[in-house]
Write the structure tokens for this entry.
Amino acid sequence: MSDIARTAAVVLAAGKGTRFRSDLAKVLHTAAGRTLVGHVLEALRPLGLGQVVVVVGHQADDVAASVTDSGVDGLTTVLQEEQHGTGHAVQVAMPALAADIDRVMVLPGDTPLLTASTLEELLHAADGRTAAMLTARLADPAGYGRVLRNADGNVSAIVEHRDATDDQRAIDEINAGMYVISREHLVHALDRLDTGNDQGELYLTDVVEILAGEGEEVAAVVTGEDEVAGVNDRRQLAEAAAVLRRRHLDHLMTQVGVSVVDPATTHVDVDVEVGRDAVLLPGTILERGTRIGERATVGPNSHLTGCEVGPDATVHSTRAIDAVIGASASVGPFTHLRPGTVLGTKAKAGAFVETKNATLRDGAKAGHLAYVGDATIGERVNVGCGVVLVNYDGTDKHHTVVEADAFVGSGTMLVSPVTIGAGAYVAAGSTITEDVPADALAIGRARQVNKDGWAARRRRRQGG
Ligand code: UD1
Ligand code: CA
């Protein structure tokens, strides 16, 4: 068995996150489209450790469901019913470790900037040693535990900010809260923790002092500021999210070949994929697994959630949710694509068009000011300006079909359910309540009456 298979990760995610002032457990808050604890699990995933145990407590069911959904192999959760500190959380996790585990990596659940390569370094530093920990030198170390080193430069203890003296607070090397410790030594030290600190908690950090005091070497890997940030409040959440977004944009620009015209106003979640030579214009927000095809242009000012955009499409000033936009399709400006919208190749949903649960097949066009709800619009159909799919009768929604090559004149109400046959024409201003056969012309409006001289007589009556 490899060292990696005999190493388990324990992720601490039971805390309430008091400083967030939130009804939602802290680790479930999202940054760049993924929960805080989800980011930690993503950093862990490529390591392929033998076991991953997530300690849950506050909102345990929701946190457990979310981490189980993350799809990390070998992941289980344990319940820390009352949260008596990080040391207590690890004590609770230990009995869940498999018999063949002989090293434990402990990670906080609130450090979303962590990367797999830094964890690899930490594992490497722990090889052949009792313990290794991650530290960083911060310009502003406030709030973190400080790393104390002895005259030889070896780590001797960690002191929490709130328990630290002024001299200790002047130390700029902080504890990232990430450790790899031999199981045997961890069990031994966990047994010796006490609550003699400002919070009356069992601090995991005291494990370091206990081991160092017994002559064990605790190796310290000093890493960059960007990796270690713990998110304890909403300002730190916003800062971490900005770093995560920027990292993802950098990846898209440098590794994929995406033009991001203004990174500062382009918010792309970490699970969004964008194809080569796509262009993201300012004010673009791409969320929840959206995928953008090659050479597509999105923005300015487009907000897409759970969407798929085909190659060469353009999506200008649009809000779209759970919509599929075909290759070379054209959307916007000022268009609202609601869930269940499917636009085919070269289809168009133009200015002030709203769609919902609607398919516009290849080449179908709704150019302006239309509502297309609960409808199947065939290939090359023209939906004129101001057409409304009257899909709701006050009780139920109904589906309408417009077959290929039909022409629906401007200002038409299609009172669903109706079927417009292939190649048929519907005269402008019609209210259609019955099916129209293929190739027919339907006119559903009152015949026009012209009253000669009426306007002149009215003006005379009014003395004009
Ligand atoms: C902790 C460290 C600190 C370090 C910092 C790095 C301790 C005592 N302090 O402080 O040295 O600089 O992380 O970010 O370890 N949790 C539980 N159960 C509990 C308490 C906490 O699961 O009973 C979880 C929290 O949900 C959180 C993580 O442990 O994900 C860390 O707890 P937190 O309260 O954020 O610790 P810090 O004060 O940031
Ligand atoms: Ca923290």
The two ends are 102 Å apart (CA to CA). Residues 12-15, 27, 55, 57, 80, 83-86, 88-89, 108-111, 144-145, 158, 160, 174-177, 203-205, 230, 232 surround uridine-diphosphate-N-acetylglucosamine (ligand 1) (CB under 6 Å). Residues 317-442 form a domain with the UDP N-Acetylglucosamine Acyltransferase; domain 1 fold (CATH 2.160.10.10). The first strand starts at residue 7 and ends at 13.
